[in-house]
Amino acid sequence: MFPILKDSPLFRGLDQQTIDKLLEHASYATATYGRDDCIARRDTAYSGLMIILKGSVRGEMTDAAGRRRMIDNIAAPQLIAPAFLFGGYNRLPIDVVANEDGTEIMTLHRGGLFEMMQDNTIILSNFIDIISNRANYFSRKIYALSVLMLTEKVAALLLSSAAAQEDTVPLEIEKMADELDITRNAFEQTLSELAKKGYVELSATQIVIRDRRALEAMVAPQ
């Protein structure tokens, strides 16, 4: 029926005949999308597991500055946001956008998937493994994005604190950390990272901006 599903992590370990038999009694639908089509929007109720049958999709979010950020890139035959299918908050955390023409998505109804997991312990085990692996991946991804956004905030603060023709900012760690609503330690670590890159120079009493263009590029809309 759908040969690619043999390579899907949800059906790993099952032959095509078994997969087809399971789908015979499941409620699902398929749809095809063009390049850059929005497949699902953030905060949309997620009542069916989406599986990519053909092509690839990307997950996007809009940050505080209004810029679109790609959170993840997913190709067939992977699953889309499986961890948000069950539980008390069944809404997508990201916008899902097709990367190419002919992207095909299967939506397997939540009830149908639950029945599959009851009937076949391999699917149940696979689904648990998928959620655990994705949780670990996104925890690392979110941490990386948080660091990036924090760096941007510090860069913006330094630029706003320095006059147009001046590149020196008084080093007031407590005050600046409070202004950004972050801990002193986080602020100091971020400053150190900027100093390592040569963007700023630190002394006991001041911060000297050495590469204004680099800081401006970090906070400029993309």
Model description:
With 222 residues, the protein is of the alpha+beta class. The chain folds into two domains: 3-119, Sandwich (Jelly Rolls); 145-219, Winged helix-like DNA-binding domain superfamily/Winged helix DNA-binding domain (Arc Repressor Mutant, subunit A, Orthogonal Bundle), CATH 1.10.10.10. The protein is built from six helices and eleven strands. The strands form three sheets. The chain has a four-stranded antiparallel β-sheet with strand order 1-8-3-6. A four-stranded antiparallel β-sheet has the order 2-7-4-5, with no helix packed on it. Strands 9-11-10 form a three-stranded antiparallel β-sheet. The relative contact order is 0.13.
Can you describe this structure in just a few lines?
The protein has 222 residues and is α+β, with helices and mostly antiparallel strands.
- Unreliable sequence segments: none
For the biggest sheet, the summary is: 4 strands, antiparallel
Helix content: 40-55%
Q: Using the coordinates shown, work out and report the CATH topology of the largest domain.
A: Jelly Rolls
C-alpha end-to-end distance: 43 Å
What is the molecular shape?
Answer: elongated
Q: Helix/strand/pairing class, anyone?
A: alpha+beta
Q: Could you state the order of secondary-structure elements as H and E? A: HEEEEEEEEHHEHHEEH
Order the strands across the largest sheet as they lie in space: 1-8-3-6
Number of helices: 6
Reading off the top of the CATH hierarchy, the class of the largest domain is best stated as Mainly Beta
